[in-house]
Automatic annotation (TrEMBL):
Natural source organism: Tachysurus vachellii
Recorded superkingdom: Eukaryota
Protein name (record): Galectin
Lineage: Eukaryota, Metazoa, Chordata, Craniata, Vertebrata
Membrane spanning residue stretches: none
SMART domains according to UniProt: Gal-bind_lectin (SM00908), GLECT (SM00276)
Gene Ontology molecular-function annotations: carbohydrate binding; galactoside binding; laminin binding
UniProt keyword list: Lectin
Length: 132
């Protein structure tokens, strides 16, 4: 499943909240924030069990090719259970509040202060999206 929002304005200082529910057999899903499908500033990829990664969140960016992966081993996601993730950013960092309240971050490798595209991919149902 792919859920895409185009021509949205998500600016530095705002919060993007995504609520969803992975399917009971979900192996992974991703939330991508960027300019378009080929220029992704934040690739947020919880992996339940995928290519040797088990219960890990993989972060990356794609700007003319994928960068170096960063892995987070705090994994507050459960198959078949609803979650809420909150994203915010400035021109240096993305800040991600995980479902258990843990905060993590990933460098804003683009250095931009506004993005207009995001998508959600994988075996997950999007329940709500809010920008404030």
């Amino acid at each position: 499943m792919v859920f895409t929002v185009k021509d949205m304005t998500f600016k530095a200082g705002q919060e993007l909240t995504i609520s969803g529910k992975p399917k009971s057999d979900c192996t992974l899903f991703s939330i991508n924030i960027g300019h378009d499908p080929d220029n992704i500033a934040l690739h947020f990829n919880p992996r339940f069990n995928y290519h040797g990664d088990s219960k890990v969140i993989v972060f990356n960016s794609n700007q003319g090719g994928w960068g170096e992966e960063v892995k987070e081993h705090s994994f507050p996601f459960d198959q078949g259970e609803s979650f809420k993730v909150v994203f915010s950013f400035n021109n240096e960092q993305f800040y991600i509040k995980l479902p258990n309240g843990t905060m993590t971050s990933f460098p804003n490798r683009f250095g931009d202060d506004a993005f207009k595209h995001f998508d959600v991919q994988g075996d997950v149902k999007v329940l709500s999206i809010k920008i404030k």
